[in-house]
Write a structure and sequence with these properties.
The structure holds 2 protein chains of 2 kinds.
Chain A lengths: L4 E6 L8 H10 L8 E10 L3 E10 L7 H5 L5 H5 L5 E5 H9 L4 E4 L3
Chain B lengths: L6 E7 L12 E7 L2 E7 L12 H4 L1 H5 L9 E3 L8 E3 L2 H19 L4 E5 L6 H11 L4 E3 L9 H11 L3 E3 L19 E5 L9 E2 L2 E2 L2 H7 L3 E5 L5 H5 L2 E3 L6 H14 L5 H7 E2 L1 H9 L3 H8 L3 H13 L3 E5 L1 H4 L4 H14 L9 E3 L13 H8 L1 H10 L7 H5 L6 H10 L7 E5 L3 H5 L3 H9 L3 E6 L4 H6 L2 E4 L8 E3 L6 E3 L11 H12 L9 H9 L6 H7 L15 H4 L17 E2 L3 H5 L19 H6 L2 E5 L15 H4 L6 E4 L1 H6 L7 E5 L4 E8 L7 E4 L19 H4 L23 E7 L11
Parallel strand pairs in B: 6-7, 6-17, 9-12, 9-15, 12-13, 14-22, 17-18, 18-19, 23-27, 24-26
Antiparallel strand pairs in B: 1-2, 2-3, 4-5, 4-19, 8-16, 10-11, 20-21, 23-28, 24-27, 25-26, 25-28
Helix pairs in contact in B: 3-22, 4-22, 5-14, 8-11, 8-12, 8-14, 15-16
The structure holds iron/sulfur cluster (SF4) (2 copies).
């Protein structure tokens, strides 16, 4: 059986730009209120009165991993347009290997 | 490229209208049967390598929006009554031509003001029309002190003869893989918010910062707000808004007094070092700490970190343009680059000129002269509003001074203003400070035209004729205000919307055929593109153009090679041929030759009595990435991501005033008030509140009551005055520093988004 695909996000660099969110909507013509990916904002207090902001783009039930695009050999719409270039598409083993080298990542495996 | 039988994909540059940006990216636009279907980033284009912002990705909703202006309109009721009738382009242009001729015959061409907003792809055609018509009064209408980019340009051109941006290898097709490029060890992000200005801005895109962070660059962030960059910074200086000039002096002081400056560069390439040294010796870091709210230990750390990094670059943003003496502040920042030798070096601040000097939209005096000739520019200066008042304004870039334009509309002296050509400038909702004063002045003029893509509050209140502008994919143009030079061309149409260039070209031809010798707009482009060896057609074929290495418009170290000065000598384009810490141009113009700090018109230090009653500092104008200035409020995918005209409050501030998230808040200042919806967030400083700019509610129906789309309920620029611009003319819009107080709006007085 072929390895499953997934999306990996190196959220050290995600700036919350929302390109992934809108790229997904354009790709699938999703209306307002519906989309394959949403941004979650997490604020963590740091010493010295500072807040660390993390954005985690979170895939939803409407993410099909851009089946049509990826079977044509293209990158998913969100991955291609991500302004921080911090999203990766690939098989789970590939993505897991990439994650090893990075401090803060998440992996999504929508089916 | 042909995708299927009916769908074709076209590669071109992106630029407003549509994405709402200062241009740069390469995109692929799919078109079916003459209609736009899709936009994607172009992976083969070096600017953003396929990446694209949310505004561009929502272009389909912009282009096909039911509220797009689709044909010319004329006013059929009183001004501001909201009553319009569709007319033909012939009638619209005939009316514009005859009214403009009347004004020119009766009062002189200078009585017509040609106002742009932030410009972008309408700046070039507006200047073109103004000069063909014969009016010197091309301006950024409404923005006090023209406090966006121009103060930065003006300051840099005086002290070093050119503008700079941080080096992100943007001048090379291979980008970061170019062997001559070096990744900066440190990037200073000063008054620059990556999350908001996340993408294309002339020679730099916000995410070049993340690109370079990945390659090892560390950040120093100067920002009152704990934004994303501050949260990732090695060092974050939480500055008081408006105190940037003082912080720059503090860093200069540390770098000089700790001997951290680049002696070789300073000896060889700078002028006035001893004067700068004596100047900063006269102030203490304790004083600077008090003014800036930045602990002196952090000022010292930042100065050391910046000076010791080899190389280091600095990004800086619009808040500096609204400093009380903006040009002096920016002189301070530029002095930091020069002290550390970070000018035109790999990984430093590189000098930015359009490829081979190609221009359709001039950003400097040199470029205006290149297009129109010295003699014509001299003639224009005689009547240009503000040119006699402000030597810097007279000698830089040919703008009419915005504050003085307003005054002259009101007073009629030294000559009357009779009409406003207002193209892609929604000054009632966004651009103007004291927008009601602008409304009062403009509504009394004889003839006003608004050119835009949507019916805005500005068009509703002031226009006699409204002309529908075409968006990206519906227009021919050339992007020349950055790198690379990109073609933009028409592949689709939306009813009768016409490109800004086409509208202005046609009208200019009617008003002064001699000034428009070309058969069509493409003919004009061909002539302007000759310097890069292209025609419009061949530019489309090549996709984009960069100048080769060794050209005067490509880095590095051009001051050493004699590539910057018109006389071909090594050095910079300044009187001394060097970077001037002590600016001889400023001296000549009666300005302080050294960088200095000036307090905002209202501040805890300048007006302590006002501060007692208005104990908060209001910032506005900070970008949100999903909207550009007053645009995109009607684009569903974007509005969903930023639904409310908000005011950001620290939780402690909210608690103190009894405000909960989502409550409506009344913001009051010494000169006006507005309502906003509270957003409570720990990224704010408890003494500072932040209101988004440019808001109006497009979905609210307008009934002719003079308050289109709720603009007077929510426009926070009503708290900011006109007429307090910097001494130089450029700068001093106080968009970040007005004092205010807040309270919860009484029940029943909230702003609803309906009619
Ligand atoms: S992979 Fe495709 S479907 Fe999934 S979030 Fe990204 S753009 Fe949407
Ligand atoms: S496009 Fe990339 S950087 Fe932007 S929000 Fe999505 S994951 Fe983050």
């Amino acid at each position: 059986m072929a390895a499953r695909n997934g999306l990996m996000i190196d959220y050290d660099f995600c700036t919350g730009c929302n390109s992934c969110v809108v790229a997904c909507k354009q790709e699938h013509s999703y209306p307002v209120g519906k989309g394959g990916i949403n941004l979650v904002e997490i604020m963590t207090p740091l010493p010295d009165d500072r807040i660390r902001i993390d954005y985690i783009p979170f895939t939803t039930a409407y993410c099909d991993l851009c089946y049509t695009r990826t079977t044509r050999g293209e990158q998913p719409a969100c991955v291609k347009h991500c302004q921080a270039a911090c999203m990766y598409f690939g098989t789970l083993p590939e993505l897991a290997a990439k994650m090893e080298a990075k401090p803060h990542c998440v992996l999504f495996t929508p089916r | 490229m042909q995708v299927d039988e009916n769908t074709k994909v076209y590669k071109m540059g992106a630029w407003s209208p549509g994405p709402g940006c200062h241009g740069g990216c390469g995109v692929e636009i799919s078109v079916k049967d003459g209609k736009f279907v899709k936009i994607e980033g172009d992976v083969d284009h070096p600017y953003h390598e396929g990446r694209l912002c949310p505004r561009a990705l929502a272009l389909g909703q912009y282009i096909n929006h039911p509220d797009r202006l689709r044909w010319p309109l004329k006013r059929v009721g009183e001004r501001g009554s909201g009553k319009w009738a569709r007319i033909s382009w012939d009638e619209a242009l005939d009316t514009c031509e005859s009214k403009l001729r009347d004004i020119r015959d009766k009062y002189g061409a200078e009585s017509m003001v040609f106002g742009q907003g932030t410009g972008r792809d309408s700046g070039g055609p507006i200047l073109f029309l103004a000069y063909a018509y014969g009016s010197p009064n091309w301006t950024l209408f409404g923005l006090s002190g023209i406090a966006c980019f121009t103060p930065r340009l003006a300051a840099c051109f005086q002290v070093m003869g050119d503008m700079t941006f941080p080096d992100a290898a943007q001048f090379f097709p291979e980008r970061y893989d170019d062997p001559d490029w070096k990744c900066p060890e440190v990037i200073v992000s000063w008054a620059r918010n990556l999350q908001g200005s996340q993408c294309a801005d002339h020679y730099f895109s916000g995410h070049y910062v993340t690109d370079m962070m990945k390659r090892g660059a560390k950040l120093i962030v100067v920002d009152p707000v704990n934004g994303w960059e501050a949260s990732r910074a090695e060092l974050w200086l939480r500055i008081r808004p408006g105190a940037d000039g003082a912080l720059a002096l503090g860093m200069i002081k540390v770098i000089i007094e700790e001997n951290l400056y680049n002696k070789e560069f300073v000896d060889k390439w700078t002028f006035g070092f001893d004067k700068l040294k004596a100047h900063v010796a006269s102030m203490t870091l304790d004083e600077i700490e008090q003014i800036t709210w930045v602990p002196k230990e952090k000022i010292i750390l930042a100065a050391r970190m910046y000076a010791k990094a080899k190389p280091a670059s600095m990004r800086f943003g619009q808040p500096l343009d609204s400093n009380a003496e903006a040009v002096a502040t920016i002189h301070g920042l530029a002095s930091l680059w020069a002290l550390t030798g970070n000018i035109d070096n790999p990984g430093g601040n590189i000098i930015t000129r359009p490829p081979k000097g190609v221009t359709l939209y001039p950003y400097s005096t040199e470029e205006v002269i290149q297009l129109y000739g010295q003699e014509f520019v001299n003639k224009m200066n005689l009547k240009r509003i503000g040119a006699d008042q402000y030597p810097l304004v007279k000698n830089f870039r040919s703008w009419a001074m915005s504050d003085d334009v307003l005054k002259q509309m009101e007073t009629g002296t030294p000559y009357p203003v009779k009409g406003l050509w207002c193209q892609t400038n929604n000054f009632i909702a966004g651009t103007a400070q004291d927008p009601k004063r602008h409304w009062e002045a403009v509504r009394k003029l004889e003839f006003n035209v608004v050119v835009d893509t949507f019916m805005t509050p500005t068009a509703q209140l002031i226009a006699d004729i409204v002309l529908p502008a075409a968006a990206l994919s519906e227009k021919d143009s050339v992007f020349t205000t950055g790198v690379p030079c990109n073609p933009i061309y028409k592949v689709a149409t939306v009813d009768e919307a016409r490109p800004d260039w086409e509208i202005n070209f046609e009208l200019a031809k009617r008003l002064n055929p001699q000034a428009v010798p070309w058969a069509n707009v493409r003919g004009l482009f061909d002539q302007r593109l000759a310097v890069i060896g292209k025609t419009f057609e061949t530019l489309i074929d090549s996709g984009y153009v960069m100048a080769p290495k060794g050209d005067a418009t490509t880095p590095y170290n051009r001051h050493e090679k004699g590539l910057l000065r018109p006389d071909g000598q090594p050095g910079f384009r300044t009187p001394s041929g060097k970077f001037e810490f002590y600016s001889q141009k400023f001296e000549e113009y009666g300005l302080n030759p050294l960088p200095y700090h000036e307090e905002p018109i209202e501040s805890p230090f300048k007006t302590p009595e006002i501060y007692k009653d208005y104990p908060l500092i209001m910032m506005t104008g900070r970008r949100v990435g999903v909207m550009f200035h007053s645009e995109h409020r009607q684009i569903p995918w974007l509005r969903e991501l930023n639904p409310h005209p908000s005011i950001d409050l620290h939780p402690d501030t909210a608690k103190e005033y009894g405000i909960k998230d989502g409550d409506w808040v009344l913001i009051e200042g010494t000169m006006g008030k507005a309502k906003r919806r509270a957003k409570i967030t720990p990224i704010m400083h408890p003494k500072i509140v932040m209101a988004q700019h440019g808001w109006w509610i497009p979905e609210a129906t307008y009934n002719g009551d003079g308050n289109p789309y709720k603009v007077w309920d929510i426009n926070v620029n009503q708290l900011i005055p006109m007429g307090h611009n910097s001494k130089s003319g450029f700068g001093g819009a106080f968009t970040k520093t007005m004092l205010c107080r807040i309270s919860k709006v009484k029940e029943g007085e909230e702003v609803n988004y309906g009619s």
